[in-house]
Structure formats: C-alpha cells, structure tokens
Amino acid sequence: MSEPSAVLTGLNPPQETLTPEIRAKRKSKDFKRNNLVGYLFVSPWLIGFFLFAFIPIAISLYLAFTNYHLLRGGEWVGLANFERMFTSDIRYGRSILATFKYVILAVPLRLVFALAVALLLNTKRRGVYWFRAAYYIPSVIGGSVAVAVMWRQLFGGDGRVSEGVINTFIGVLGFERINWFGNPDTAIWTLILLAIWQFGSPMLIFLAGLRQIPSELYEAASIDGAHGWQKFWGVTLPLLTPIIFFNFIMQMIAGFRVFTQAFVITGGNPLDSTLFYALYLYRRAFNDFQMGYASAMAWVLLLIIGFFTAISFRLSKYWVFYETKEG
Amino acid sequence: MRSIKHRALILLSVVALLLVMGSAALAQDVQQMRVVWWGSQARHDRTIAVVEMYEAAHPEVDIVYEFANFNDYWTLMNTQAAGGELACVINQDYAYLAEWARNGLLQPLDPFVESGAIDLSAVEDVFIAGGRVDDQLYGVSLGTNSQSIIIDVDAFEAAGVELPPLDWTWDDFEAIALQLHESLGVWAYGAPTLGDDQIWTAMMVSLGLTPFNEDGTALGFSDDQPIIDHFSRLLRLQEAGAIMTPEEASQYATGPENSPIVAGAAAMQYQWSNQVVAIFSAAGEDRHFRLWPMPRPANAVGSANYLKPSMFFSISATCDMPDVAADFINFFTNSTEANDILAAERGVPISSVVREHLAANLDAVGTETFTFLETVAETASPIFPPNPPGYNDIRNNVWTPLFHDPVLYGQISVEEGVALFRSEAEAILSAN
C-alpha cells in the first residue's frame, strides 16, 4: 500500500529542510498509517481466520484436557482423555485398525491406478483431451454425499442386496452374490474401491509430471536399445519420484481423514470394521456430545498424520530422485 | 488532505463492516415462534398441516418450524442448547427429559396447567406422570405407546400355528419360531434385532427390576442370567435358521417399507406400537397383521410391556413467548380438528375426548393400535425411571458394538460379551 502515498508525497514536495530525525519520525508515522489501511483491507480474511480457524483450534486444544460435554459442561481432567483413548477405549483401537487398513490399502492402490491411467493418457492419440476430462470427473464430484449414496446403491445398500448393480453383474457372470455391507471382510472394500475410482487428482498431477520428462532421455534410451518396460523402469519412474512422493503425502493425509464415504455408505458397520478415525471422532462429538474427548482425539489424529508425514520425508531421501539436486 | 482521504477510507470500511453485521441482526422478527420435532416424512406432512391450521387461526403468530430424523435432531438440539439458541417448542424424549430439565433448559409447565392455558382436564394422570421430573411437569406427552411384536396372521395360519396367548414367554416364542420356520421355510423373525437394548429393558421390567439403579450410578440388577439366556436363545434360533443373523438382516435396508415382514420373508417383527402404521400400510390391505404384547422370561413376575409417552412437547427455558408456546401445545393436545390430521401417528392421544373422537372413525391400523394399547394397559408394568446420563453412551458405544454385534456375529461367547457389557456400562455409570 505504499504506492498511493508515494504519489501523494511527490505532489507535495517538502518545503522545510528535513533532519534525519524528522524524516525517521515521518517514515514511521507513514508506515503505521499505511499498515493500518493494509490491515483493514485484509481484515475480512483476518476476522474469518481468527473467528473460524484460530480461535476454534485453540479452544479445541484446551477442551482436549477437559471432559467437556455439550449439555453438562466439563472440567479440567489433565491427560485423562488420552489415557482413556490408549488404555480403555476398545472402539478407539478398532477405529485405529480400520483407518490404518484403509490407508495401507487404498492409498497405494489409488496411486498405482492413477499412474496407470496417466500413462495411458500421456499419448498423442485423438480424443485424449476428452478422456482426461472424463476421467477427472469422479474426483470433482468425489467427496460429495451424492456419489456416496450412489455407491451405496451400486452395492445394494438400499433395498435388497441382491438388487444392487454390482451383484446383478456378479450373478450374471455366474458367481455367488456378495452381501457387501453385511460382512466385516467385504464392507471396507466398497470404500477402498470408491477411493480407487476417485483417482482423478493424482492422475492429473502425474500427467503434468510425465510431460516434464525431457524426450531426449527417451531418445537416448532408445539408442541404447531400451524398450517399453525398460524405459519405464529406467527413465519414467525415477524422474517421476518427486511427483509420486508429493501424491503419496497428499493422499496419505486425505486417507487418514476419510469420513464422508464411511459416514454415508457403511456407517462404520459391520462390527466397526469401517469405523474410521474421523467417523468415530464425529460420533463421539455429535452423537455422544463428548466434546472434550473428541477434541483430544482430533489432536492425536493431527499427531499421527504429522508423525507419518515426517517419517515419509525422512525416508524420501532413499528413493526420491531430484534432477536438480547437486551430487 | 492525505490524512482526510485515509480517514474517509477507514471510516467507509468500518461502516461497511458494521452494515454487514447489522443487517443479519435486523432480519429477526419478534413475532416468530420456533417449533422443532423429529420423525419421518409422514409425520412432517401431518405436523406441518397442523402448524398451518394454527397459524390460520392465529394470524399474529408466525411459526417457523424445523424437523429432522431422530439422530440428527438430537445433534441439532444439543448444539442449539450449547449456543443458547433453542426453539420455543421442542420435541422431547423420555430418555432425555430428566437431564434437560435438571440442566435448566426447560420451563416447568405447571403454571400453564393451573391457569388452564394447557388444558389437561380430560387427561388421566397416568398419561401425564411420564412428563414429571422432580415433581414438576416439563413435558406434555404427545401420545402413548408400548413395545409389540407384529404377527403375520396369514403366515401363522398357513403354518398351522395357533396364535400365542397374550402372556406368552420367550420359550413359547422359540417353539413358535421353530415351528413357523419348519413348515413355511421362511424366517420366523427378520429384523430389527431381537437383541435391542429396549428389549433388554422390557425384560428387566417383567422381572420386576429396573435397568439402572436409583441414582443412575450402576446397573439396577446383579444377575446377568436373563440376558445370557436371551442371547443364547437368539444364537440357537440363528443356527436353526429360524431368525436372521445380523449379516442376513443387513440385506434389508432400514425403513418400514423394506421390512422383512412387509416383503413376506418373515412372520414376526418387533416394533414400537406408534411405528406400525407405516408397516401396515406398506404391506397393503390384503395382508393381516396383529399386534401382540412382548414375550416375557419364564420366571417373569409381570408384563414385559409398559406404557411409555412416545414423545413430549416442552417449552425451552429461553423461550420469550411461553404463553403462545403453551397455547400451541394445548391446541396440539386438545383440538379434535388437529388430531384428525395427526391421526394418532405419535401414539394414542392422551386426551380422552380426542381418543373418543378418533375412535369413531378409525381405519384398520388405528383400531388395531387402539385395541392393542387398551389390552396392554390392563396388565402393563409400571415404567422405569428416566434413563440416567450416560445411557446414550452405553447404547451407542457398549451395548451394540461391544456386546450385541460381536456375540451375534459369533466372535465372542455370550458370557464374555455380558461380562464386557457390565464392566464397560458400570464404568460409564460410575461417573454420574
């Protein structure tokens, strides 16, 4: 915001001789005034940030050490919430298990699928732009409740299970129909399949990464006699590792926070096999109204995500290859 | 000059900000009264019609209504209570009334009853009593209901099984279920689960016990054998193929029109009596369903049925127009025109005048419900005290996920499950 006042200063050239002290005083006054206007202009964002992000986050940190109940109020309990989480809450253990199972299965599968489709679409065939857009659509609408509801119906979640599209298909192919939502072994797979289907955003990032790989490298590889797979292992994959790493981090964080799909499609059932961390946290907060405990859970989730992100960064130096890096 | 421009700019920004904030506050109209309830679409339609009827008679009142399903409703209510934003007239449940009243969130209704603003002169005390907490009235019951087993009479006839006596036991139930299954090849019983925690409370009532002790600090019984017997029975019936396993039951989506009994896949179904309307109508007129009282354990000392206020209307403590709210509740309770529309969908009305009025022109379902409740009322056990704080936690986090599901899925034994239930439930209750 210094430009307008600089212009104004130019219009009114100073008449008296300026001692350095006066100049410094003027400057700091201008600075304060200009800053005030600046802060006023960003105030809508600042107010929003403090009101809806910073203050709630700070309060939730405080609540994590209380047994605050929405109706009954609460008091300071120190570390009791964390103790309960790790020693006596059986469902908490189940939610950790379900979440890790989901992250370990869904994240790599989604990345592999996204990379495979990106490789297919990284060609100069006709209509490839159309396909790129089409394959991205599931991700645009992916987090929505509508897709989750549709997914539920595909697997026969509303009405008789045998009437779901997937089961009709399985029946036509001559296999026995699967009660997807009734069996603790299969229910989580409906959610993993949904995650794989929503491969659009990592795919787009992979596509951008693929286009960055200089074509000379492929030419050189061809001259050396390398073929399809060899080029992929020797050129594409190493040069793509920074992109893979980025996608992995983003998808892992999203995986730990998975909520909507489980909330709508399986509701955490059966036998808590899809009771993901965020879903259990939500239930504790808004069905049981144990806000203190839920806040503590939220902070532990933050620590878990932080921990695994840090580990990933540590390990990345062993497999991520940066072209620009020295040595 | 520079500073004037700057000041003008600052002033303008501040004014703009205040305007944005102010306009939101000014939009509120003092003449509005908020009413909230939970339920299904059929209930929403009927209730909205009655709200509009009230508005037509009272043009000075503008009723703003909100509704949701039962679970979302309580999320909404608790959030609004925490924010001091409660509606004037709120739907209350027996399970929560005491906690809300004791937390000072509700107004006592006795002054309105004394002044006649809420006219309960045609209501027997047994229907009012459920709304009292610490000797003060906090909720007016919107209907009376009781637990029941819906019986498909046609299936019983086809299987050559006689209808059970009204005081049937769970042993009778088991014999009948096996017989039905053998001769019809369908499930004798489908969903919802017979291991529901409300069946547990019904069982305790019939044994002359209460689910929780007087202070709500522990379970109200020391012998777990009735629960062990019941779940062992359910496992036996599951194994025989007479009742659905939870996995099989999960094939049927929730909602009355998807019930196994409606689909003709099962011959009996457990249901609260005010919820049977949807099932009877989804099944169609050519089916013949009857309502039967709950089975009781062989060593029961009384009926497993108790009369429960299906829900209440209460007035929130923050309501600034309690007279209008009271008048609305009075209209809901005593107006025969309003109850023609509501048609006992929330349970059998508490006013004897309204009951007689409705009884004159009831449909088949209505007649069945009214007669069922009359029959049950003759022998009903007294209702147990309102659930203690933590009941919800026990139901959501202990009964179903730690005991009911693992036992009926065959992951742990009944004895292990019951022991876990007791220790976890008592841990929650001991905090009271």
> Please, how many helices of chain B?
19
Structural class of chain B: alpha/beta
Biggest chain pair interface: A-B, 39 and 43 residues
Question: Main sheet of chain A?
Answer: none
* Quaternary status: heterodimer
Indicate the percent of residues in helices of chain A: over 70%
CATH class of the largest domain in chain B: Alpha Beta
Secondary-structure element string of chain A = HHHHHHHHHHHHHH
Give the neighbour order of strands across the main sheet of chain B.
2-1-3-13-6
Number of strands of chain B: 13
Question: What descriptors fit this protein?
Answer:
heterodimer, A: 327 residues, mainly alpha, MetI-like fold, 2 domains, 14 helices, disordered N terminus, B: 432 residues, D-Maltodextrin-Binding Protein, domain 2, globular
Describe this structure in words.
With 327 residues, chain A is mainly α. Chain A has 2 domains: 2-63, no CATH class; 81-316, MetI-like (MetI-like fold). Chain A contains 14 helices and no strands. Chain A has helices spanning 2-11, 20-63, 80-87, 90-121, 128-140, 145-154, 165-172, 187-197, 200-212, 215-223, 228-256, 260-266, 277-286, 291-316. In chain A, helix 8 (187-197) packs across helix 12 (260-266) and helix 11 (228-256) runs antiparallel to helix 14 (291-316). The longest helix of chain A has 44 residues, at 20-63. Chain A starts with a helix and ends in an 11-residue tail after the last helix. Chain B is of the alpha/beta class. In chain B, 50% of the residues lie in helices and 12% in strands. Chain B contains 19 helices and 13 strands. In chain B, helix 8 runs parallel beside helix 10 (225-240). Residues 22-30 of chain B have low confidence and may be disordered. Classes of the chains: A mainly alpha (327), B alpha/beta (432). Chain A binds chain B through residues 5, 8, 33, 36-37, 40-41, 43-44, 70-72, 88, 90-91, 94, 156-162, 179, 181-184, 269-272, 275, 283, 286-290, and chain B through 1-3, 6, 9-10, 13-14, 17, 71, 74-75, 78-79, 81-82, 99-100, 103, 105, 246-253, 258, 263, 389, 392-393, 396-397, 401-402, 405-406, 409, 411, 424, 427.
